[in-house]
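[audit] Reproducing an earlier prediction to check determinism. Same input, same settings, fresh worker. If the tokens differ from the archived copy the diff job will pick it up downstream; this log only records the rerun itself.
[audit] input (374 residues):
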Amino acid sequence: MSLFGAASPSNNQSAKSSPADVRRNNRQLIFSLLFPTNQYSRADLGRLTGLSRVAVSDVVSQMLDEGLLRETGQAPSGGKGKRGTLLSIDIDRLNIISLDLTQDHMLHGAVTNLLGQALRHAEITLGAGERVTLGMIGELIEKMMGMADGTVIGIGIASPGVVDGGVVKRSTWLDWHDMDLSTPLQERFGINVTVTNDATAAMLTERFFGQGDRNMIFVRIESGIGSAILINDTPVKGEMHAAGEIGHISIDLNGPECPCGKHGCLETMISDHVLRKQLIHADEQQKIQILDRAGQHLGQALSMPVGLLDMADVCVYGQPDIVNATFIDAAQQYLDASTSSTFHKHTVIRRCECGSDITVQGEAIAVLVHYLSQ
């Protein structure tokens, strides 16, 4: 199974599945092999998938017509016989609209191609204390619909908090409870709307365009703190869709009160806003001590999931003056001291190096995953 939902074909599966299910699975399988930048001929795809020549040709023809794939030239000569035509993801014909609800003082969005690369940006500035509303989101989408050159296949919204389907069940940052985003927006624009937790969206960018592998913990440190978990290329959602709420793990029961109702949540200790208040009047030595202590808190919060899930890769996203060498080293030292053993692979904590479009790019990928599953 991959992020695109494609499973390798099997005789049993084919026997039990409808023709539409088989075609959808084959489409997902072929797309996952080409995404993001691979090039294969039809013959290559047949060998890699185990699909028949007719099945590959049928699915590829449909995907070419749809605008998902394009032909990119002749494959290198492999000896006798006609050279095959290479196929790749088409980044010119289809567009995705992607919104990021995590930014301070603005609502940010982009029109992207199928790789999630931003073609055009748009934003709405928020006044002091002003909250994001459904009306603002609709206004920004309307603006970006007019900016798209290609056919828009979906709208994606990356939101902090607990997301279940198209509903933000709880977001302390946005002060939302049971906010249904998808239903009214789908009715208004007539296009499928995908809503994703912001850390999960950013993790998808790290997976395909950063250094992330099939298994990792991704931590996002900004105004709030969230995380996402990828196991065998499958995002872990949890029973109540709240997996990854590392920001609301209490690491000090006598610590500051959190908007969630608990005390000493990680978010009250090391969020970007909290640390900047501490750093603003600190000298250089004090800054090192503040970030060292913050890194230790993160290492403390990570020690349980790392040990429980046997994860070797932890990627941390945040501003470079906060998530710097001092912070990462302190988190690494604490994690090593609490999890190192002869039967556990050494876990590396590293800084995410994807750029500022990490969220809109990842949300576009989430839209694409959903689109291919239809």
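[audit] rerun output stored. Observation attached for the diff report: Residues 159 and 197 are 5 Å apart (CA to CA).
[audit] end
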